[in-house]
Amino acid sequence: MFFLTIKRELLLAARRPFDHLNPIIFFVIVISLFPLGVSPSPEVLVQIAPGIFWTTALLATILSLDHLFKSDYEDGSLEQMLIGGKPVITIVMAKMTSHWLLTGLPLLLISPLLGLMLYLPASGIIALMISLLIGTPTLSLFGAIGSGLVVGLKRSGLLISILILPLYMPVLILATAMVRTGINEAAYAGHIYWLCALLALALALAPVATLASIRVSVSQ
Question: What one-character DSSP code corresponds to residue 121?
Answer without folding.
Answer: -
